[in-house]
C-alpha cells in the first residue's frame, strides 16, 4: 500500500465528517450558514466572555481575540491556568521529574559510573522548584492575554442572564460583564467519597499531595487512576511505603488490558502495593495517623490498614456550582455535565460550554481543543475535535500513553484485527541508556490495515504517542508508519517496528 498524501487524506476526512456528522465526538460544523450571532458593537459589550481561565478557558479567550472578537476572560483563582497549571498537571510533573532524578541517583547512577558519597532529599527545595515553575507559567499566560488584548477580570462569575455575568471580584467589589456569546470553561473539582472528609493534612486530595511538608512513611492512595498512580509514584520514589486501594478489579480501567498488566507489574517492582477489589468503609483520623477500615468489594471480612497520609484520588466532577446555570435554564446530565451540541452550544442560545464541564475526556489538552473549536464556530468558521483521537498519558516511569481503541474495545465491536508488538528490550536506544522496560502495541483493521489504536509503555511515551495521533487523524495504515524513515538510534523506532510487526514482520526481533 503506497502512502497516501496527507492533503488527500485531510480532504477525505473533512468530506466524511461533513457528510455524516456521526459518532457524537466529531465536532465539524455542518454549515456556515447556521452562524447567526453578530459581533458586539457597544463599547461595554463583548463578542465573547469566557468564565474560567484554565487550559480551555484561556486558550478560547486568546483564540477569540486572534479572530478579531472583543473578549473578556473571568477567573476566580486570581492566577490563570486553572487546576492544571496551579494544582494539577504542571506541579505534579515537576515533582515527578524531581523525584525521578532522586530515584535515578540512588538506584541507577552507579551503574553508569557516577557515584556519590551520599544523596539526600531536600523537600523544601523540591517544592520551591515546583512553585517557581508554576509561578512563571501563570505569569506567562497573563502576558499572553495582555498581548492579545483580552480583558482579564479576577473574580467569581455567575450568570445574571444569558448575556450577562455578575463577577464578585477578588478585591471585594462587583462588576457586570456583558457578552453576545458566553463560554463556560470552569473545569472540574475533586470527587469526594461518602463519609470521607478531606482536610488536606492527613486526608488529602491531589492538591494536598502536591504540598506535603514531609515525606510520609506510609501513604495510602484511594483510587488507581492516572492521578493516584502518578502521585503515588512521586512519594514512593522519595521513600514512602505506598499502598493503592482500588474498588475495581484493575488499575486504570480505561487502559488496554495487556498494557495494564505489564504496567502494574512494573509499579510493583518499584515497591508500590495494590489492593484491588477493595472498598474503603471508613477512615479514623483521631490518632496520630489515619486508620482505614477496608472490606472486599463483593463483601466479606473487614481489615485495617494504617497510614500517615491518605490521598483520595477517586476522580473528578464538573465544576458548575454557583454559576447560576439553573437561573438561565441550562440543561445538565445526571453527572452534572453541561449538555452541548456539535458546536458547543447549550440549549440556551449564546451560552456555550467546553472542557471538563461537558461530556468527553477530562483532559487539559482536550479542553484546549474544545476552546479553539468553540470560538471558531462563534466566528463563523469551522471547528474540529475528534474525541476518539485524544491521547491519554500516565506520567509515571515508564510512562504509558495511548490513542484510539484498546484491544478489548475492538473485540467488542466485532472487528477483525491484527496486533503488532515490539518490546523496548529490543530497541537499541533504550538498551544503550539502560531504560528498556515497556513495549509498543498497534491494533489495525485486518482487511484495510487502518490503525485503530496505539498503546505505548516506555520512557517518554507521552512524546512518542503523537506520531500515532497524527497517523490516526489521517486514517493511516500500519504500513504507512512502517515505511516512514525513523532516525537511528531512537525510541521512536520501536513504533516503526511495531507497525512492521502489524502488517508483516519486525526486523529486530
From TrEMBL:
UniProt: FAD binding residues: 93, 157, 186-188, 356, 362-365
Disulphide-bridged cysteine pairs: 84-89
Catalytic activity: N(6)-[(R)-dihydrolipoyl]-L-lysyl-[protein] + NAD(+) = N(6)-[(R)-lipoyl]-L-lysyl-[protein] + NADH + H(+)
Pyridine nucleotide-disulphide oxidoreductase dimerisation domain ranges (all copies): 390-499
GO cellular component terms, A-Z: mitochondrion; oxoglutarate dehydrogenase complex
Pfam family, one: Pyr_redox_2
Root EC class: oxidoreductase
InterPro entries per UniProt: Class-I_Pyr_Nuc-Dis_Oxidored, FAD/NAD-bd_sf, FAD/NAD-binding_dom, FAD/NAD-linked_Rdtase_dimer_sf, Lipoamide_DH, Pyr_nuc-diS_OxRdtase, Pyr_nucl-diS_OxRdtase_dimer, Pyr_OxRdtase_I_AS
SUPFAM superfamilies for the chain: FAD/NAD(P)-binding domain, FAD/NAD-linked reductases, dimerisation (C-terminal) domain
Domain FAD/NAD(P)-binding: 47-371
Annotated protein name in UniProt: Dihydrolipoyl dehydrogenase
UniProt organism field: Escallonia rubra
Origin organism lineage: Eukaryota, Viridiplantae, Streptophyta, Embryophyta, Tracheophyta
Amino acid at each position: 500500500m503506497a502512502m497516501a498524501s496527507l492533503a488527500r487524506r485531510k480532504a477525505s476526512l473533512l468530506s466524511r465528517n461533513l457528510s455524516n456528522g456521526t459518532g457524537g465526538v466529531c465536532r465539524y460544523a455542518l454549515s456556515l450558514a447556521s452562524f447567526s450571532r453578530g459581533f458586539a458593537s457597544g463599547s461595554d459589550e463583548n463578542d465573547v466572555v469566557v468564565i474560567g481561565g484554565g487550559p480551555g478557558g484561556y486558550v478560547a479567550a486568546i483564540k477569540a481575540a486572534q479572530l478579531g472578537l472583543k473578549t473578556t476572560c473571568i477567573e476566580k483563582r486570581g492566577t490563570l491556568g486553572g487546576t492544571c497549571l496551579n494544582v494539577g498537571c504542571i506541579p505534579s510533573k515537576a515533582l515527578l521529574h524531581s523525584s525521578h532524578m532522586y530515584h535515578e541517583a540512588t538506584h541507577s547512577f552507579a551503574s553508569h559510573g557516577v557515584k556519590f558519597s551520599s544523596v539526600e532529599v531536600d523537600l523544601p527545595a523540591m517544592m520551591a522548584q515546583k512553585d517557581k515553575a508554576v509561578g512563571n507559567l501563570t505569569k506567562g499566560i497573563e502576558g499572553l492575554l495582555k498581548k492579545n488584548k483580552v480583558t482579564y477580570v479576577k473574580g467569581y462569575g455567575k450568570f445574571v442572564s444569558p448575556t450577562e455575568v455578575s463577577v464578585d471580584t477578588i478585591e471585594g467589589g462587583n462588576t457586570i460583564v456583558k457578552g453576545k456569546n458566553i463560554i463556560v470553561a470552569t473545569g472540574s473539582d475533586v470527587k469526594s467519597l461518602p463519609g470521607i472528609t478531606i482536610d488536606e493534612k492527613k486526608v488529602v486530595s491531589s492538591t494536598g499531595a502536591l504540598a506535603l511538608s514531609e515525606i510520609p512513611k506510609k501513604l495510602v492512595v484511594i483510587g488507581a487512576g492516572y492521578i493516584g498512580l502518578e502521585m503515588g509514584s512521586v512519594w514512593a520514589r522519595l521513600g514512602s511505603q505506598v499502598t493503592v486501594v482500588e474498588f475495581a478489579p484493575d488499575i486504570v480501567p480505561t487502559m488496554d488490558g495487556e498494557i495494564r498488566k505489564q504496567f502494574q507489574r512494573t509499579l510493583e517492582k518499584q515497591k508500590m502495593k495494590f489492593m484491588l477489589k477493595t472498598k474503603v468503609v471508613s477512615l479514623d483520623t483521631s490518632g496520630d495517623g489515619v486508620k482505614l477500615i477496608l472490606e472486599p468489594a463483593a463483601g466479606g471480612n473487614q481489615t485495617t490498614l494504617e497510614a500517615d497520609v491518605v490521598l483520595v484520588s477517586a476522580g473528578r466532577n464538573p465544576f458548575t456550582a454557583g454559576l447560576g446555570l439553573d437561573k438561565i435554564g441550562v440543561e445538565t446530565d445526571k453527572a452534572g455535565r453541561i449538555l452541548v451540541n456539535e458546536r458547543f452550544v447549550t440549549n440556551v442560545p449564546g451560552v456555550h460550554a467546553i472542557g471538563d464541564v461537558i461530556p468527553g475526556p477530562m483532559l487539559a489538552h482536550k479542553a484546549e481543543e474544545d476552546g479553539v473549536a468553540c470560538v471558531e464556530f462563534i466566528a463563523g468558521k469551522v471547528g474540529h475535535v475528534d474525541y476518539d483521537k485524544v491521547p491519554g498519558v500516565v506520567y509515571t516511569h515508564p510512562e504509558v500513553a495511548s490513542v484510539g481503541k484498546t484491544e478489548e474495545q475492538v473485540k467488542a465491536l466485532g472487528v477483525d484485527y491484527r496486533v503488532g508488538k515490539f518490546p523496548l528490550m529490543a530497541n537499541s536506544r533504550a538498551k544503550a541508556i539502560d531504560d528498556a522496560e515497556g513495549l509498543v502495541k498497534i491494533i489495525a483493521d485486518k482487511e484495510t490495515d487502518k490503525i485503530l489504536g496505539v498503546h505505548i509503555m516506555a520512557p517518554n511515551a507521552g512524546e512518542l504517542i503523537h506520531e500515532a495521533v497524527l497517523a490516526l487523524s489521517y486514517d493511516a495504515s500500519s504500513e504507512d508508519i512502517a515505511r516512514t524513515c525513523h532516525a537511528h538510534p531512537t525510541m521512536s523506532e520501536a513504533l516503526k517496528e511495531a507497525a512492521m510487526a502489524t502488517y508483516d514482520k519486525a526486523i529486530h526481533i
